[in-house]
Amino acid sequence: METGNKRWYACAFCAVFMCLSGRLAWGMQGSPQSKIDQYSAQASHALADRNLPEAEAALQKLAALTPRSASVHAQLGLVYYLENRYAQAAQSFRKALTLDPQLPNASLMLGICLSEIGRYSEAVPLLAPVFRSPPNAQAQRLVGLELLHAYKNLRQFSDADGVAQELLRRYPDDPEIIYHVSRLYGDQSLSLILRLMKKAPNSAWVHLVFAQINEDEGRYNSAITQYRLALQLDPRLPGLHFNLGRALLLSSDSDQARGEALKEFEEDLAANPQNSLAEYEIGEIYRRAGKLDKALPFFERAIQFNPQFEEAQIALSRSLIGLNQPRQALIHLLAAARLNPANSVSHFLLARVYEELGNRAAQQREMALFRKYRVQPYSNPNGSAFQVPASFGAPKVTPQVLESNPSK
Predict the structure, then answer these.
(1) CA angle 328, 332, 334 (to 5 degrees)
(2) Helix (H, G, I), strand (E, B) or coil at 145
(3) Number of structural domains, the chain?
(4) Which of 278, 279, 302, 332 could form a disulfide with 312 if both were Cys (CB 3.0 to 4.6 A apart)?
(5) pTM reported for the whole predicted model
(6) End of a domain among 150, 171, 200?
(7) Looking at 150, 178, 198, which one is the last position of a domain?
(8) Which of 322, 406, 339 is nearest to 371 (CA)?
(9) What CATH number does residue 329 fall under?
(10) Domain that holds residue 48
């Protein structure tokens, strides 16, 4: 597995080079010392200058002169490794270990090279102990990535998950680690989906998978078709009616789509009377249609079942504002703001409520917070915004957004 920090990490192994250089004399006895000194100096200078071809040439000559020097073979292995010549590097590290089984870090580097050339079952016994007790943080990071790669390719997903979670714990913001862990779970998910399709190709579960994939990709009409096929096969499958209702809302803003979605949410509630998500979606359909009195009890039940439901707290407060009950709305907006202090919608609505209540200072404070948090969550370095890819999935429920121009 190629890692973007390979050369940087190899530089951290300079200490290994220094350690090995002190062991050269043992293997060089009886050799022409002037040539040995010449090639040793060339190799040292070339490595210091990152001139890998020159270092390789000098170390190959040293290895010919001192075939019993484990340290020379190990240094040659490191150069091959830095040149991405992993098979040759593995041979050099094996030779070094044959000559000196205790050579520092040689077995670690052999394990890394074996992983790079796909000999994962040989690599794991060399890498796993180092990952558990690494010589330093840099070693654990590199070994962890190689070990993750090896376990993944051996399909030992339980072991891979353990390594992934430890890497995330130690390096929570490392983009390379985040990427490879996400690929682990993405590939594992795909593998399970393919197994499902093979074992139960005509099941409702397969149609459910296809529906969710289509929904994630923004193909809502195809998702609706797949949800309905799943319902025909198994009408009691949990969550199907709710998911179909969401897909209908995402597919169109028409009265027909909202009417069909409403029926699906009601079907879901009939099977699962404490589904706060379905309660919320029904309330939101009524709220957006201007039927605030009908919306209120659905939002209230959604919050009763799940007090941490931020969107429901906001939706309930909006209904109360529309019904001229600002003091009651304030309670739920403050609850929403506690759940998510960075939500600009909550602060904008709080500013409106405080204005109606005559609290000018609080109104100005909330407007300042609204302006602070009203930013695009994703932007590139030159400041222009971009959208999260559709394949990252639609929101689980209808999000609360400002429906009027906040600048007015």
Answers:
(1) 110
(2) helix
(3) 2
(4) 302
(5) 0.66
(6) 150
(7) 150
(8) 406
(9) 1.25.40.10
(10) 6-150
Q: Which element (helix H / strand E) includes 408?
A: none
What own/partner pairs with CB < 8 Å and gap ≥ 24 does 345-352 have? 345/314, 345/400, 345/401, 345/402, 346/314, 347/373, 348/374, 348/402, 348/406, 349/314, 349/317, 349/318, 349/321, 352/321
Query: Is there a domain that residue 163 lies in?
Result: no
- Domain for residue 169, yes or no? no
